[in-house]
Amino acid sequence: xxxxxxxxxxxxxxxxxxxxxxxxxxxxxxxxxxxxxxxxxxxxxxxxxxxxxxxxxxxxxxxxxxxxxxxxxxxxxxx
Length: 79
Description:
This protein is mostly helical. It contains three helices and no strands. The termini are far apart.
């Protein structure tokens, strides 16, 4: 193996690690935002953030928006 081959392998490993890191952060972000904002459905937002990454990434922005939406608190008489 020449020096170029070793350099290419190092670059490939760094790129793969970076891609995995970005996917992990993208799945974690909606749930983290919802928890920090005391969202009443924070656990559901967390699950939605991870599931949408595994099923095409198309609905991930909806999970992110959902993390920012303020849900009004229910009144005591509502069922």
